[in-house]
## 1
Amino acid sequence: ETGVTQSPTHLIKTRGQQVTLRCSSQSGHNTVSWYQQALGQGPQFIFQYYREEENGRGNFPPRFSGLQFPNYSSELNVNALELDDSALYLCASSLDSLRGLPGSGGYTFGSGTRLTVV
Amino acid sequence: GNSVTQMEGPVTLSEEAFLTINCTYTATGYPSLFWYVQYPGEGLQLLLKATKADDKGSNKGFEATYRKETTSFHLEKGSVQVSDSAVYFCALSPYNTDKLIFGTGTRLQVFP
């Protein structure tokens, strides 16, 4: 197992630009979730992907989108960046979506990408 | 709706002191409850969890009991160490999902 790796670690973008954040999930983990953590706040659920399909979404606008690939990697894309998008973005992978089972929270989190929008 | 409320920090303690970090929740149905820890520059690590009422989660000397009657999941440790200094997040996962809803976090600072 190699854990969850996110890239880049830090990023500065200008308002209105687009950004792609990347995550390499733990080997064999077919479920990935993305969270946004604003400074001094707890992480907020953006969306989850299970076997390359979106499987649940939080209260985020459509300009937040994602992709999951067969090799356990995934992307978070944000279009038309706003200043409030400045945050730490966390990727978390798990062995399987729980689909109808009680939550286990058995996620492995990456160290995150710090995005600053100026 | 579902939400988690944690005591504000920072919590500052001397080494070997007793730790309590309060956490209460609001949820429909029967959520699972968690404590995550975030060390500086690192991602979140699952510390402990409880999936039903009266369950006690424990790990590395930390404990928390799922109290449905008080909708609480307070984190305790009998004797903290400097290495426990971190931010602690209480979280819930609504029944039938594995989405996590986090509190705002409590920073713990332990001094020698």
## 2
Amino acid sequence: DGGITQSPKYLFRKEGQNVTLSCEQNLNHDAMYWYRQDPGQGLRLIYYSQIVNDFQKGDIAEGYSVSREKKESFPLTVTSAQKNPTAFYLCASSINPGQVLIYGYTFGSGTRLTVV
Amino acid sequence: DQQVKQNSPSLSVQEGRISILNCDYTNSMFDYFLWYKKYPAEGPTFLISISSIKDKNEDGRFTVFLNKSAKHLSLHIVPSQPGDSAVYFCAASEEMGYKLSFGAGTTVTVRA
């Protein structure tokens, strides 16, 4: 079955530590995205990548970094510079732009990060 | 500044009746609109979409209406079923296939 796998589902981090969230897809999608969800708010875009070895900042990129070395993988690193990292993080991918209106984005099941 | 707004955080509806979810947007450059459904601790799943060249799109029990002049869209679910109880997000994009801006979501509860 094709889909997006995010791991781990729950993650605890001490203040001052960097942590990397994994996102892998086997849908052969070109574009991948990272969103953050906070209580009572919509999903906010952190970073996105339309092709391998290329990525762009979203609306709230400060304190985060990404890489896109393989089509299937788009890991997100939450650095110690991110002031409020506790949130629910969602990874998504999309087929070629011409078919997004038919299929939408495909989302993973999310990683809940808690800073302790 | 949130460009997509869902002003009703929750909606309760009786099974078999119509659910109407509303969404307003401020960015006149938005041309593509999508609705997503989300269960707790899961990722959102795509429901239905509409482009700005249309004012209505139907898919089974789900219909989306777009009023571009009012910068408003709505999702109708008829008839509502218990499995429809979830959070519904409205999303919009300026260009097809690129980054989506999401609303805060509306939690729908379908009562038996």
